[in-house]
Amino acid sequence: MLFELPDDDILYEALLARDARYDGRAFVCVTSTGVFCRLSCPARNPKRENSIFMDSVAACIESGFRPCRRCKPLGSLAEMEPLVSDLIQQLEQDPGRRWREADLEARGYDPSTVRRAFKRHFGITFLEMARAGRIRTAAGTLSAGSNVIEAQLDAGFDSASGFRAAFAKTLGRPPSSFTGDERLKADWIKTPLGPMIAVADQHALHLLEFFDRKALPRELVRLQSLTGAGIGIGRFSPTDQIEEELDLYFDGAKGDFAVPLALPGTPFERLVWRALQEIPLGETRSYAEMARAIGKPSAVRAMGRANGANQFAIVVPCHRVVAADGDLTGYGGGLWRKRWLIDHERRLAATQSTLKIEA
Q1: Whole-structure pTM value
Q2: What is the secondary structure of 76-142 as a DSSP string?
Q3: Active-site residue 318, yes or no?
Q4: What is the pLDDT of residue 2?
Q5: CATH number of 8-130
Q6: What angle do CA 252, 312, 135 make, to 5 degrees?
């Protein structure tokens, strides 16, 4: 990132002022509409709690947001290069189309040139951008309870096999194989940081991850292997519970979680995950501090691996672990989310502390 973003409060003030100086440098993602905009967008301003700020088009799209039709955050950048402008217009006119390199060649474009141009302007290739839109639409359709054919049509896939191949990368199996009798069921939960996927059985939550996490397909395959159970689409009561608890968390009303968790890791991993849950709200710990906390001061690297193997985002707060110098380190949900969660929890902890004093 060439431009260091100020904090979200400053960016929200810039949004209210429709400050064009941030165009191309910062974008606002509106959780209530699923749209991302330039800060100078003339549309009605979103509420502060519905606003997430990101530093690139790629981050917005990969987090499940679509470009605003009014301020055209893609078009403002696409004007720099004719082929980019043309292809962006094609996506807007037919968002469900499944693009291939042969389609680019048919329009007279060299696929490698298109790839470099989109990466240069947006940080994401044209084919990735088109695919992200189709997957986002498919996920929303299935979550709403529509059948596979409706999802296929809404996602713009031209064949059932194409849809199965793409969606299986996320859920680990084709939607057509779902029977409704699976012991584990997956459903989507909307949050201010983008959609999350929750997997639960009748008694406990087995997984909670951001939908765009790159490791999610592997985690789902591993979960099915460990439990010996397939994953269907739907929800049990633990999913309802975590959805309610996440709403309270993001609203700033509550910072802890009571949903029962099924922890499938090794004894060492479970030890680390329990230690993560003991980090106080609003605080962070280094990897070395965490290793000492579990009584294994020399196991810093092993602690880091166990931290990364956590499959309960937010609930088991691996985002509270930082580098020894306080810098943010790798986070499967993206460093922008890690920064947001830490800042949010500090505000939440401060609010709870004030309420205790007043009481």
Answers
A1: 0.59
A2: HHHTTSHHHHHHHHHHHH-TT----HHHHHHTT--HHHHHHHHHHHHSS-HHHHHHHHHHHHHHHHH
A3: yes
A4: 44
A5: 3.40.10.10
A6: 95
Contact partners, residue 142, CB within 8 Å, separation at least 6: 148, 151, 167, 175, 233
> How far is it, in rounded angstroms, from Cα 287 to Cα 273?
13
Q: Tell me how far apart the alpha carbons of residues 75 and 88 are, in angstroms, rounded to a whole number.
A: 7
Q: Rounded CA gap, 321 and 289, in Å?
A: 9
Q: Please state the separation of Cα 56 from the chain's center in Å.
A: 14
Looking at domain 267-358, its CATH class is: mainly alpha
**What SS3 class is residue 209?**
strand
pLDDT tens for residues 57-111?
Answer: 888 887 778 888 888 888 755 556 788 888 888 887 777 778 889 999 999 999 9
- One of 29, 60, 68, 318 is an active-site residue; which one? 318
277-301 per-position pLDDT tens digit: 999 999 999 999 999 999 999 988 8
The three-class DSSP label of residue 41 is coil
The total of other beta-carbon atoms located within 10 Å of residue 255's CB is: 17
Cα dihedral across residues 245, 250, 251, 255: positive or negative: positive
282: left (phi over 0), alpha (psi -120 to 50) or beta: left
Q: Which of 136, 24, 46, 27 is nearest to 91 (CA)?
A: 136
